[in-house]
Amino acid sequence: MAIPRKSSKKAASALSATELVAGNEGGKLHRPGQRLILWFYGREKPLLEKVEFHCECSSQFGYLKQRAKQRDNSFTWTEVPQAISLLFLEYSCAGLEGRAEKFCFSGGKGSLAASLGYAIAKNTGKVFTLFTEYLPSGGEESRVFRVFDARNPDGKVGDERLIFIKSDYLPAENVQVFLDLEQLKTPKQLRDLSKRIRTAWSLEPSRQPESPVGEGASAKKANPAPPPAEKLPPAIVPPPAKPPEPVPAQKEPPKQALTLPPSILSPPPISVGSIADRFLAKFRIGLPQENAPRQEDKAKRPEPTPPAPPRAEPVSAPPQPPQPPVPPVRKIDPRLFEVPQTDDCWPDDSPLICLGDEDAPYTWTMKNAFEGVLILGATGSGKTSGSGAAIAESFLRSGFGGLVLTVKEDEAESWRRLCAYCGREDDFISVSRGGSWKLNILAYEAQHPGRGGGLSENLVAFCRNLLRISSRHQGAGGNEQFWEAASNHLLNATFDLFLLAGGEITFDRLASFVQNAPTERLPSNEGEWLKVPVFGSILTMAKQSATTDEDRRIFERATDYWFKVYPGLGSRTRTSVTLGVFSLLDAFRGRDIPDIISSDTNVTPESIMAGKIVVLDLPLNSLGHAGLVVQSAWKFLFQTALKRRERARSPHQRPVFLWEDEGQHFFSEHDHHFQATARSSRVSRVLLSQNVHNFYQQFGQGGREVANSVFGNLNTKIFHKNSDPETNEWASRMFGTETRMRTSFSHQPPQPAKDMWDSIRRMVDPPSTGGTSTAPNDEPAVRPEEFALLRNGGPENDFQVDAYITWLGLSAEGGRHFTNATFIQNQNL
Q1: Which terminus of the chain is more solvent-facing, meaning fewer CB atoms within 10 Å of its CB: N or C?
Q2: Is 556 exposed, middle or buried (0-12, 13-18, 19+ CB in 10 A)?
Q3: What span, in angstroms and rounded, lies between the C-alpha atoms of 570 and 572?
Q4: Distance of CA 666 to CAs 572, 655, 707, Å?
């Protein structure tokens, strides 16, 4: 059967593997065994569209596909799919060359082999979805460990990961590769595709020898002789019987520039195989690495010609101090972006809290929690230890993950005790000054998976949200739209250059860059750039990396701002914009703050989705503005990560919560958009405060409308004891009115007696001088003054806390949509 030739990549999914296999060699099937089929598309920049694994003809095959409807069968072009593609592509090539039994896939920390080793070792995820056999009887069985063998897959001992394919179970001839529906059958075609994938996506070069390995080079021999360095780049090596001794010839070549003079390129370029290039691949997809020679071309490439003296004169006269090198990117472990699958189930109708009595129980469910919670009560009303503690305990006992923002000094300790009380002490994480838990927030925003990762626009949106909160708390005024647009322009131009330069992005470096930006127009001569500290090295590295038309356009847009627009601003305007941005960046540079938000990363928002309770022990009462900005950054990253989470509303998706006591401090315009999609993201946002004035004053003019918009999306509202008249009036209106029968009395003075006999008669039978009447009247269901009479806990009230509570769908006695509830005060808080 002939294979239909179509140009569309989408047609690949219409052909079954059996049809394609049967179409080879006159319809003769391959040797009996398992089959793995790789579908690629794109000649210039190849991508894996689908990978299939067939066990038996009678069973349903496992597969992974980009943009698949089923969540478990979809993937994005990240490190594990890249590793699977190159592993089996080169394994198939090795089979055609007669060296399949000697083939392995290897690499150190941060390599593709390490990522695949992690995926195999954790015994779950996409790899196991692919190598799952769906049996005709309805069951399923994993075949991962029949296909793979690995040494040190999880990296706990040593650095080198070795991945083997068990050729007796999956022969190399049973791996088939198709590019745009054309099967690749020769070693040259397979090697060419592998090279194009590695070049286009800036991956490390292959270590596997391209020519067949003879008997003398068998991996089973002790102390095999290493091949020359030119033919053995550091990525894949045959498995040695024992760790080989370091070979000087295999060290990474000295970093040097090949296109610009050394005086211009003071910061050394980043090597092709470094972790930084892996990071840059997210932003410069398909860029040719002009400044780093490929290993196989080293012998053919001539040494760089020394620069002509006139070229170096602008920089060397007068001599300038050397610029510090651009620090490498801090790569975040890809496992920290993953949320493991779970067999637990959290249906929307699962009860969390039961109110009322046995005759009239009212159940508050997960669905109600996902619709948001607002708790208002005066200081000392028992809102935190009463209804707040009841809700928090229900979340912890149900397996929620959560992010807790703090204002008071003892909040983190209270949550630690509550987690221990609920059996969740192992999930408790406290992020604090000098602590061990850290999140590099800029690296996270730049490296997170998804389409928005590494875009300067998203980094600007992140900073803009923090800038609004920062300026609001500092009392900034004036034309907000103008200052916001000017700040956005500056941040866009800054992040564009940092992303092109490819080095690490930290708040210290951003602040130094803005602080040293020239206020006078600079010529386009490259030598003048290096005269500006920090600014010059970033600009030079950005130009060096801008090798595509799109990168050059971005570079020109950024330089137009710094060389033309920024110096052209009025001195007062420029100073105001710079100080606003610098004030935000400076909040992240206080004592011990960079260590927890600009260094390493070992906890992420995805950790919360996996069930961790992250408490930000950076209370505003002690850290002030720095604590506010850092916690607001965490909150924003958590909210955007939840938006990226698939909104399948699956009951197997772990629910999470966002806890904001004294929530007016962290209030932002972004909350309105977040709360509108919270239910589909299975997140419960709990907002606690004293009164509505706390929120209204945060936004000044128009703040009432913004706050009420968010309040309207918080369907569960709880009101404790309060003495604020406007808050009580607002709560009373929330509960509406009721029709009640009211009786009125009237009295009239008696008429004077007409004569003596009339006077005597009235003494015996007094005349009626008053009357009563009863009529319906609309009155508040809960009068405002009633909120001041609620119990607030403590020994004098037997630790009982009263509240009025309402939620969407509640039907209480008498047709009411609210009820009066009593909570027992939790002594753990």
Answers
A1: N
A2: exposed
A3: 6
A4: 30, 22, 12
Among residues 543, 494, 509, 553, the alpha carbon closest in space to that of 269 is found at 543
Q: Per-residue pLDDT tens for 5-17? A: 333 333 333 333 3
pTM of the model: 0.55
The verdict on 457 and 546 lying in the same domain is yes
Q: Which two tokens stand for residue 205?
A: 């070069």
Among 664, 675, 623, 140, which residue's Cα sits nearest to residue 373? Answer: 675
Is residue 724 within 8 A of residue 411, CB to CB? The reply is no
Q: Is the N-terminal amide bond of 318 cis, ω within 30° of 0?
A: yes
CA distance 484 to 487: 5
Distance CA 223, CA 226 (A): 9
* 638 occurs within a structural domain: no
Count the helices and strands in the chain (H runs, E runs). Answer: 29, 23
| Residue 163 three-state SS | strand
* Domain endpoint, select from 212, 228, 256: 212
Same domain, 176 and 283: no
Among candidate residues 675, 680, 737, 678, the one with its CA nearest the CA of residue 708: 675
* C-beta neighbour count of 144 within 10 angstroms: 15
Same domain as 190, residue 66: yes
Residues 33 and 156 grouped into a single domain: yes
Domain assignment present for residue 189? The answer is yes
Judge if 274 and 186 occupy the same domain. Answer: no
In the block, which residue shows the tokens 């992005």? 505
Considering its fold, how many domains does the chain have in total? 2
Range of the domain at 205: 9-212
Q: Give the C-alpha separation, 421 to 741, whole Å.
A: 49
How confident is the model over 115-167, as pLDDT tens digits?
A: 888 788 766 677 888 888 777 666 678 888 888 887 766 665 566 788 888 88
List Cβ neighbours of 373 (8 Å cut-off, separation of 6 or more).
Answer: 391, 684, 685, 686, 687, 714, 716, 717, 718
Q: What does DSSP say about strands 683-689 and 373-376: parallel, antiparallel, or unpaired?
A: parallel
pLDDT tens digits, one per residue of 606-622 = 999 999 999 999 999 88
Torsion angle of the four alpha carbons 648, 649, 654, 657, in this order, in degrees rounded to the nearest 10: 120
Sign of CA dihedral 380, 381, 383, 387: positive
**Which phi and psi angles does 517 have, rounded to 5°?**
-60, 135
Encoded amino acid at 8, one letter = S
Which of 177, 212, 247 corresponds to the end of one domain? 212
CB atoms within 10 A of CB 650: 12
Looking at the structure, tell me whether residues 156 and 278 fall in a common domain.
Answer: no
Phi/psi at 432 (nearest 5 deg)? -145, 165
Question: Tokens in use for 782?
Answer: 């809960």
The helix or strand, by DSSP H or E, that contains position 129, with its residue range, turns out to be: helix 126-130
CB atoms within 10 A of CB 173: 15
